[in-house]
Amino acid sequence: MQLKTSAAKRSEYGDSAKYVTFTAADSKGNATGGKVKVSINQSAIEEDRRLAGYNLLVTSETKMNAADIYKAYHNLWRIEESFRIMKSYLDARPVYLQKQETITGHFLICYLSVTLLRLLQFKVLGDKYSSEEIMNFAHSFDVTRISDRNYINIARKSEFITKLSEMTGLPIDNLHLKESDIKSIQNYRFKTKHQNNSKTAKK
After folding, report:
1. Is residue 77 within 8 Å of 130, Cβ to Cβ?
2. What DSSP string describes 64-88?
3. What's the pLDDT at 3?
4. pLDDT under 70 in the chain at which residues?
């Protein structure tokens, strides 16, 4: 009977079932072994109101302050995101390889790619852009040659490309590109925020 009542609560009230109490009662509200009376569990509501907005985290890190512990916990979602990136953008799955060494090499390249993506995202771009924006740029940026020294930029313009062009000084948002522009893009080396700050301090 208890199992059926519990199932009925969940089926009828969903997530709100914890705020509802089922008791056996007759038409006058007297407890019997027959009909069931539904009432609001006010104490459960008050308890949730009292604790609303609070999170309890249990950790073995005794030397971290509360803000760092919360930040580490909040960023756990990035682990799942990294696997999604490998599957969606880097074709980590499904694996069409058979030899153990080629499978290992395939996943090594995927892991290294995600590592480089994260370094670019956090250390260079200051976590201002999502991994999707960066990967979409890497996949879609392309140019086509129209003569010996002239190219057309066929990448679709985006806010990310515009901001990246302003930050690096590269002509990646220009429609027409010269041979020298292509070489400057290929030879460009990103610098971390720490390196940029050190350079500014020396000046």
Report:
1. no
2. S-HHHHHHHHHTTHHHHHHHHHHHH
3. 44
4. 1-13, 24-36, 193-203
Cβ proximity of 41 and 60 under 8 Å: no
Q: Is 21 exposed, middle or buried (0-12, 13-18, 19+ CB in 10 A)?
A: middle
Q: Where are the domains of the chain?
A: 2-51, 66-128, 141-196
pLDDT of residue 95: 80
Bridge partners (DSSP) of residue 145 are 151
Q: Residue 146, class by beta-carbon neighbours within 10 Å (0-12 exposed, 13-18 middle, 19+ buried)?
A: exposed
Contact between 157 and 172 (Cβ < 8 Å): no
Alpha-carbon gap, residue 37 to 200, rounded angstroms: 73
Predicted confidence at residue 171, as pLDDT, reads 94
